[in-house]
């Protein structure tokens, strides 16, 4: 297990008593998660589980981002080379890590309160896509005034993954559909309001908070919560926030089909001129139609809401492999090969005028069976369903339900 | 259940050990920050172990769910999600999971208001789109699927909607003509009007033709005048009438120029749009009930209330402006039959709902039986899981098999109904009567057994089963009393028999074709493989039906020969009528099961369904005394059947979890004892929040 703190390490590890700090250290790429980082994180978290000393893990990012997501550049590179299985392996690790974090603090599984390890993620900056996967599933998520959260996958020909079908579908009402389909950005106050964050701490107090957590050296959730509470404040939820309009969001985004949602959003946009609703409409119109269908009908409404985290990542893995293989729709592959994305999610910050051509380009060109096929196992030789980390010596179906 | 009494010393020392462990438990006070317990040794305190950890899943439960739910799976899941995501559906977090069920501790008035609020929420989200205005089987199946999901949340909600859409809306659709459709269907679908259905009276329930409300026609004003002539004619149990309904369909005798033309249906407004009761209408509440308190049942009196001539639902008969009675069907008996035939949708709905209710209770009771232990077989051994007791298996697993069988039966009925043609009306009437009685009786039996199987936990409202007994009891009464329905089936079969014999024709329809063949002969020795053979099972069910029909015809004829009229002869033959009704239902249900099985090409799904079907068939042989009474089976046969049932119990035991998982009911719609009941009952659960949330624990 790597524990040096040299500046060129991708993940810095700091130890203080029973507390471990994992610091994502790829600031120039906004801490986009490379293959190496994912597998290192996986190893680090697994090692902590065997280490009875460890009580608390703090995860944070170096620089102005927590993490802008999975390293799409390398995935794109593989696909252009025709090597989709190598990308699949990347997602395999990514989702395994997600699952590990989501089930990290389940005392009844580890049988003893002594083995409870808490994860505190400090989200002082950009949290997108894969970045959410390594933070939102933990017990405590601390947002700051610098936090920017988004699941921008539908604009990239993908769908919200890393367990997003699990955590988005559990947001209040149909806020999760709104966030997942439009890829809208939330600030720290909004993250706290909707439950993506558990606390809001001003960034200037973060060093003191970390110090206090190290000093506490405890895995008692009540105590840790009380400590973070001590540094927390109630942020001001901006007037124009969509979260104030939950009833409108519920009305629009609870519709059964993406067509129904689009129609409802269009109607609302005529009625009111709020910034968020016209932005939502624009996102929905420019996103990949296949992505939207996959995300909504299948991920958020049909499956995610009714499944455990294990089932969610297993399903997402099947879907991502089908997308990567690109036989049903080539949106993700196209988006990548047209160098729509340069580094991680930078494009949506800096290259706003890119205009990808989706195929199929209209909802009515997408049959139900095309969507259905994304949920099937691949019949490629050697391909297997996501194997969840064998930490409990249990068959996969059992782990999936927990 | 077994309890060992061998070594009392062992028991005492074991108890001491357990008590010591209890006392030494740290973390008893959840806020103590000192984690003093450093020992990691085995604790004798009971740990919850999810059944998923120990049970094997040997077939694809998703595929099984597709067979059971049969249609509109995504629409169902969408609606489950809609309910789960709204505070209106009363989500409660227990043991780290969210459960939804109505707050039955609210007053009757509050529950009724919540029902309306939930309906409002679903209107806004387009749940009812096309329920009355869309055409074709697909739209009907979507409506039925969504009704089923709603029923899984709350019976009141589904009954309230059933009255508005199926009864009021259905009456306009089927009894009305274009002018009514144009005026009312769209308005009903978006709840611009709230409808109810005033058929039963204090003095007349099942016997609709005997109702006493009278309507006359005033040609001067071209109005009908509806009157409640006596107290026994007050409309009774009218769902929606007590608080919310603005309009009703009124069933009444139509008296034209002093001549009674029989029962007809009219539309009458009973409240204005502000909710004030209209002039010449009186309404009273039926009051608090043993269940279904989310439905506002009321009583209505009409004091010569006037309605326009156009409000007669005139699909079979009309009255001209000058007061002439016009009908294409001259015979009042036939007219009445044609009139009511399309109203079977209610029974279809009840049948399906009863099956889903049984599914909920079995899913809960079986999951609990896979996590709850009681008594050790030997000292110092861990206690045994409830479902490992053969007696517990025998209590629950046959009910599970019956529920599977009735699931296929209900699906068959649904598809028959949505694809119906006028020629099929009679068959649908008979089959829906049979299945409605069979499934609702089965449901009540299942609920009681599951309640008892959960012990004290079954008594908590939050665990649903016990409360559902009161909620679903009404099913054996409304839309036709089960016993009356059984007699109607026998009468219909009698009619088929006479028609076939008189016309020297073959039996056709209702699955009676087997009567055209020679009488099946069953083996004298019943081996295990014979008993599990679907041909044997079908044969013995057919044998019973054939023989009972012959006996019934003979007995009715004998009574008639003694000079009694046909109706009275039927009444006197009630015992065989009852047996025959059951024989018909059981055979029809088995038939739908074997057909569903035949559609599968093989594999683990087909194999497990074979076991379930055998269990259904054999438990019927074991439980229904008519097999012994009339000698279709000997006492030796019945002993062999009984032995086989025990074997099947232990075989199905290993699939129990997978079989209830296949019901596809989301966790939130089951109950806390179906999951980690130690955690949901823990002190920290009492204290609600420990600070911080994981999405993993927010399921």
Any idea what the radius of gyration of chain B is? 28 Å
Which runs of chain B of at least 5 residues are low in confidence (pLDDT < 50)?
1-6, 22-43, 689-699
Instruction: Give me the strand/helix succession of chain A.
Output: EEHEEHHHEEHEEHHEHEHHHHHHHHHHH
What is the residue-averaged pLDDT of chain A? 84
Low-confidence stretches of chain A: 1-5, 106-114, 337-353
Radius of gyration of chain A: 20 Å
Strand order of the largest sheet of chain A: 1-2-3-5-7-10
Shape assignment of chain B: globular
Largest sheet of chain A: 6 strands, mixed
CATH architecture of chain A: Alpha-Beta Complex
Please name the two chains that share the biggest interface, counting residues whose Cβ lies under 8 Å from a Cβ on the partner chain. Answer: A-B, 55 and 43 residues
The percent range for strand residues of chain A is 5-15%
Mean pLDDT of chain B: 91
Distance N to C terminus of chain A:
29 Å
Q: Main sheet of chain B, how many strands, which sense, barrel?
A: 6 strands, mixed
Could you give me the name of the CATH homologous superfamily of chain A? 2-enoyl-CoA Hydratase, Chain A, domain 1
Question: What layout of secondary structure does this protein have?
Answer:
The complex is a heterodimer of chains A (402) and B (699).
Chain A: E1 11-16, E2 19-24, H1 35-50, E3 56-61, E4 65-67, H2 72-80, H3 84-102, H4 107-110, E5 118-123, E6 126-128, H5 130-133, E7 140-143, E8 148-150, H6 164-167, H7 175-182, E9 186-187, H8 188-194, E10 199-200, H9 206-216, H10 221-231, H11 246-253, H12 258-271, H13 275-286, H14 289-303, H15 309-325, H16 331-337, H17 346-350, H18 368-373, H19 396-401
Parallel strand pairs in A: 2-3, 3-5, 4-6, 5-7, 6-8, 7-10
Antiparallel strand pairs in A: 1-2, 8-9
Chain B: H1 8-24, H2 51-54, H3 61-69, H4 73-84, E1 91-94, E2 97-100, H5 108-124, H6 137-153, H7 155-175, H8 178-189, E3 195-198, E4 214-218, E5 223-227, E6 235-239, E7 247-256, E8 259-269, E9 281-285, E10 297-302, E11 305-308, E12 317-319, E13 325-327, H9 332-340, H10 345-369, E14 373-374, E15 384-385, H11 390-418, H12 425-453, H13 465-472, H14 482-502, H15 528-531, H16 534-561, H17 566-572, H18 574-598, H19 604-623, H20 626-629, H21 635-653, H22 656-661, H23 677-680, H24 683-686
Parallel strand pairs in B: 3-7, 4-7
Antiparallel strand pairs in B: 1-2, 4-5, 5-11, 6-10, 7-8, 9-10, 12-13, 14-15
């Amino acid at each position: 297990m790597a524990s040096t703190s040299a500046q060129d390490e991708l993940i810095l590890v700091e130890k203080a008593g029973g507390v471990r700090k994992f610091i994502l250290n790829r600031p120039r790429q906004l801490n986009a998660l490379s293959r190496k980082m994912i597998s290192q994180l996986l190893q680090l978290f697994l090692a902590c589980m065997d280490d009875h000393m460890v009580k608390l893990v703090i995860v944070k990012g170096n620089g102005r981002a927590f993490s802008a997501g999975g390293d799409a550049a390398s995935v794109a590179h593989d696909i252009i080379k025709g090597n989709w299985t190598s990308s699949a392996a990347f997602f395999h690790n990514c989702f395994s890590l997600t699952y590990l974090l989501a089930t990290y603090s389940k005392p009844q599984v580890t049988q003893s309160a002594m083995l409870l390890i808490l994860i505190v993620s400090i989200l002082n900056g950009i949290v997108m896509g894969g970045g959410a996967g390594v933070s939102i599933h933990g017990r405590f998520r601390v947002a700051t005034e610098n936090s920017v959260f988004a699941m921008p996958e539908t604009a990239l020909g993908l769908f919200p993954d890393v367990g997003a079908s699990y955590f988005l579908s559990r947001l209040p009402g149909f806020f999760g559909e709104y966030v997942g389909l439009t890829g809208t950005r939330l600030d720290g106050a909004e993250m706290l309001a909707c439950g993506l964050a558990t606390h809001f701490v001003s960034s200037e107090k973060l060093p003191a908070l970390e110090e206090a957590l190290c000093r506490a050296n405890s895995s008692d959730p009540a105590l840790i919560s009380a400590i973070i509470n001590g540094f927390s404040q109630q942020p001001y939820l901006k007037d124009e926030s969509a979260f104030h309009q939950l009833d409108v969001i519920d009305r629009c985004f609870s519709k059964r089909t993406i067509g129904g949602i689009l129609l409802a959003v269009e109607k609302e946009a005529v009625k009111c001129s709020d910034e968020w609703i016209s932005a939502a409409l624009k996102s929905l119109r420019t996103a990949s139609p296949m992505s939207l269908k996959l995300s909504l009908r299948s991920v958020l409404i049909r499956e995610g809401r009714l499944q455990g985290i294990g089932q969610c990542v297993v399903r997402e893995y099947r879907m991502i492999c089908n997308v990567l293989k690109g036989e049903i729709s080539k949106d993700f592959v196209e988006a990548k090969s047209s160098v729509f994305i340069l580094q991680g999610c930078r494009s949506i910050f800096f290259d706003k005028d890119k205009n990808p051509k989706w195929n199929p380009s209209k909802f009515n060109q997408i049959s139900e069976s095309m969507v259905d096929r994304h949920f099937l196992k691949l019949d490629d030789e050697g391909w297997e369903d996501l194997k969840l980390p064998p930490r409990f010596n249990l068959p996969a179906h059992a782990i999936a339900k927990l | 259940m077994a309890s060992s009494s061998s070594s009392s010393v062992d028991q005492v020392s074991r108890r001491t050990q357990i008590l010591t462990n209890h006392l030494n438990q740290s973390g008893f006070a959840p806020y103590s920050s000192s984690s003093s317990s450093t020992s990691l040794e085995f604790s004798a305190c009971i740990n919850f172990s999810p059944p998923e950890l120990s049970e094997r899943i040997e077939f694809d439960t998703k595929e099984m769910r597709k067979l059971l739910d049969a249609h509109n799976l995504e629409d169902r899941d969408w609606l489950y999600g809609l309910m789960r995501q709204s505070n209106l559906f009363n989500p409660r977090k227990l043991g780290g999971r969210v459960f939804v069920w109505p707050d039955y501790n609210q007053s009757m008035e509050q529950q009724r208001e919540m029902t309306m609020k939930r309906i409002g929420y679903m209107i806004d989200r387009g749940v009812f789109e096309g329920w009355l205005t869309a055409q074709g089987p697909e739209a009907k199946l979507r409506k039925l699927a969504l009704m089923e999901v709603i029923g899984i949340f709350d019976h009141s909600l589904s009954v309230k909607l059933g009255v508005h859409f199926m009864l009021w809306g259905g009456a306009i659709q089927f009894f009305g003509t274009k002018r009514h459709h144009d005026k009312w269907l769209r308005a009903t679908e978006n709840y611009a009007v709230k409808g109810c259905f005033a058929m039963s009276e204090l003095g007349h329930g099942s016997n609709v033709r005997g109702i006493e409300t009278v309507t006359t026609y005033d040609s001067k004003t071209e109005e009908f005048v509806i009157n409640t002539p006596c107290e026994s004619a007050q409309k009774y149990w009218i769902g929606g009438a007590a608080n919310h309904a603005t309009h009703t369909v009124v069933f009444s005798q139509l008296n034209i120029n002093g001549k009674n033309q029989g029962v007809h249906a009219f539309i009458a407004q009973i409240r204005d749009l502000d909710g004030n009761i209209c002039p010449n209408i009186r309404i009273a509440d039926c009051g608090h009930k043993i269940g279904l308190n989310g439905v506002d049942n009321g009583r209505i009196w009409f004091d010569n209330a006037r309605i326009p001539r156009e409000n007669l639902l005139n699909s079979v008969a009309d009255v001209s402006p000058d007061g002439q009675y016009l009908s294409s069907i001259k015979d009042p008996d036939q007219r009445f039959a044609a009139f009511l035939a399309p109203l079977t949708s209610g029974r279809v709905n009840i049948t399906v709902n009863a099956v889903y209710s049984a599914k909920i209770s079995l899913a809960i009771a079986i999951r609990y039986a896979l996590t709850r232990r009681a008594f050790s077989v030997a000292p110092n051994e861990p206690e045994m899981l409830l479902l490992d007791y053969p007696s517990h298996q025998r209590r629950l697993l046959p009910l599970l098999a019956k529920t599977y069988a009735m699931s296929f039966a209900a699906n068959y009925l649904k598809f028959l109904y949505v694809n119906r043609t006028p020629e099929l009306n009679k068959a649908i009437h008979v089959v829906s009567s049979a299945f409605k009685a069979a499934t609702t009786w089965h449901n009540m039996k299942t609920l009681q057994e599951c309640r008892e199987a959960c012990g004290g936990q079954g008594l908590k409202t939050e665990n649903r089963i016990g409360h559902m007994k009161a909620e679903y009891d009404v099913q054996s009464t409304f839309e036709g009393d089960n016993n009356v329905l059984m007699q109607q089936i026998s009468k219909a079969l009698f009619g088929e028999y006479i028609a076939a014999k008189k016309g020297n024709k073959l039996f056709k329809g209702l699955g009676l074709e087997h009567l055209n063949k020679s009488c099946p002969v069953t083996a004298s020795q019943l081996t295990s493989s014979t008993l599990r053979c679907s041909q044997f099972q079908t044969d013995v069910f057919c044998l019973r039906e054939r023989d009972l029909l012959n006996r019934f015809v003979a007995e009715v004829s004998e009574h008639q020969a003694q000079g009694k009229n046909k109706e009275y002869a039927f009444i006197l033959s009630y015992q065989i009528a009852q047996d025959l009704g059951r024989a018909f239902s059981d055979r029809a249900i088995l038939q739908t099961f074997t057909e569903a099985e035949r559609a599968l090409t093989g594999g683990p799904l087909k194999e497990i369904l074979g076991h379930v079907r055998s269990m259904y068939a054999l438990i019927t042989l074991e439980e229904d005394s008519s097999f012994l009474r009339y000698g279709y089976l000997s006492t030796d046969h019945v002993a062999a059947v009984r032995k086989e049932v025990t074997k099947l119990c232990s075989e199905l035991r290993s699939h129990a979890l997978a079989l209830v998982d296949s019901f596809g009911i989301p966790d939130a719609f089951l109950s806390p004892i179906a999951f980690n009941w130690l955690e949901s009952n823990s002190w920290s659960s009492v204290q609600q929040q420990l600070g911080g949330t994981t999405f993993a624990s927010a399921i």
